[in-house]
Amino acid sequence: MRFPPIIGRGRKTPVQDLQELSALLAVAEAGSFTAAAERMGRDASVLSRRVAALEQSLGVRLLTRTTRRVSLTEAGAAYCRRIQPLLEELASAGREASEHAARPQGLVRVSLPVTFGRHWVAPLVPRFLLEHPEIRLELRFSDRVVDLVADGFDLAIRVAARPLRDSSLTLRRIAGYRNMLVAAPSYLAVAGVPQAPEELARHACLGFTGHADYPDWVLARGEARHRLRPAFRLATDLSEMALQAAVEGAGITLTPDWLAGPGLRDGRLAEILPGWGGPGQGGVYAVLPPGHLVPARTRLFVEAVTKAIRAGWR
């Protein structure tokens, strides 16, 4: 939305217009540039220039200047009567906006990847709603990469195996993760524990088709790289299914540590080939529409997600 200039002439910005109007009212009330400058914490010459610019823009003299006092002309007095209520209304609107920001409210529309959203975001939502009763959430779970602006989202949480780069969006990296090989102790007791990536070829492997390198597994340890193409006993586009099959002893899967963490902690899973994992460090990102001003309600939700992840990360 484009707003017309307050004064109507020239190419000044609304901020410049307001500064000039405020200067005029301050000088008219104080009766001199010096007294007005003291009240506003400005230099008298600055106020003089602003009033002069306003007079030039309007094409009329607003103040009569003498060596001792400054007073309004007839046109200046009439002009001040009209603009004073407007500036008071603007000041009131500013206070109202600040109070609104201090008490965040309104709707936050969030796009979430299905598995990550279910494991890491859904559990924090009830408490967030209780702590912020005036904020409403609309959460859409989908692995589709949405267009934040076109689809009307305030925020997207994205999980990426490689660094995200999009100059048109605001990206905030919340946390890092890595892909790791895991299997159930019951499977390893029968099939044995592989000691090198090459040995995975003779093991039952469980694949997630959403991996960037599928149908290959690309493993890294330091500068070393190993690429293999397992004969998957199971391939699925649901990472939770591949992990659950591994928990039940069906084979080995390559999965992110944020998903394998609970099974590793309670002993249902064991890490295979420690030190070997997906190449590079993946990341969890908060993706925001272009611009620098993030509404308080959106910022609070990003902070809640960030806090939950960093507190519970493996």
Automatic annotation (TrEMBL):
A molecular function annotated in GO for this UniProt entry is:
DNA-binding transcription factor activity
Q: Which InterPro entries match?
A: LysR-type_TF_proteobact-type, LysR_HTH_N, LysR_subst-bd, WH-like_DNA-bd_sf, WH_DNA-bd_sf
List this protein's GO terms for biological process: DNA-templated transcription
Q: Which UniProt keywords apply?
A: DNA-binding, Transcription, Transcription regulation
Q: CDD domains from the xrefs?
A: PBP2_CrgA_like
Keyword Transmembrane set for record: no
Which Gene3D superfamilies does its entry note? 3.40.190.290, Winged helix-like DNA-binding domain superfamily/Winged helix DNA-binding domain (1.10.10.10)
The chain positions of domain HTH lysR-type read 16-73
Q: What is stated as this protein's family in its record? A: Belongs to the LysR transcriptional regulatory family.
Q: What is this protein called?
A: Transcriptional regulator
Q: Which organism is it from?
A: Teichococcus deserti
Taxonomy of origin reads: Bacteria, Pseudomonadati, Pseudomonadota, Alphaproteobacteria, Acetobacterales
